[in-house]
UniProtKB/TrEMBL annotation:
<protein>
    <submittedName>
        <fullName>Nuclear transport factor 2 family protein</fullName>
    </submittedName>
</protein>
<feature type="domain" description="SnoaL-like">
    <location>
        <begin position="9"/>
        <end position="126"/>
    </location>
</feature>
<dbReference type="InterPro" id="IPR032710">
    <property type="entry name" value="NTF2-like_dom_sf"/>
</dbReference>
<dbReference type="Pfam" id="PF20409">
    <property type="entry name" value="SnoaL_5"/>
</dbReference>
<dbReference type="InterPro" id="IPR046860">
    <property type="entry name" value="SnoaL_5"/>
</dbReference>
Length: 126
């Protein structure tokens, strides 16, 4: 008897799990559970808020650094994902007060690429 190999999650399954966690604002759990070790996180060129990062550890530190600058949250909202091939996307609105920036509203599109059942790329468009 051979051990049964666990099949990788489909893009839809990853997007569904992402959605469950995102609706509860559990972003670090998304990273822990769904991100590949070699994940890349891409910001718009010349972003005033964050820089690109590569690797699960650096991507986590990027998120932690941003959260540490948030002084007040006024509204956070994430749409349900739309899946196409090995990508899915969500819309996100963040209305918050950020150290060094004051109150800001960011409306963005967040695009994710899935490979072998894990998120290997996240890209923010705002």
């Amino acid at each position: 008897m051979t051990a049964k190999t666990k099949e990788a999650l489909t893009t839809q399954q990853v997007a569904d799990r992402f959605d469950t966690l995102a609706q509860e604002e559990r972003w670090f759990e998304i990273q822990d559970e769904l991100f590949a070790d070699n994940v890349r996180s891409i910001e718009p060129p010349n972003s005033a808020y964050l820089q690109d990062a590569e690797g699960k550890g650096p991507v986590r530190k990027k998120g932690e650094a941003f959260v540490a600058k948030v002084q007040a949250v006024h509204r956070m909202y994430t749409t349900h994902p739309i899946v196409g091939g090995d990508h899915f996307a969500v819309g996100r609105e963040m209305d918050m007060t950020v150290e060094g920036h004051g109150r800001v509203v960011i409306n963005e599109l967040m695009v994710y690429k899935v490979k072998d059942g894990q998120i290997v790329l996240e890209q923010f468009i705002y």
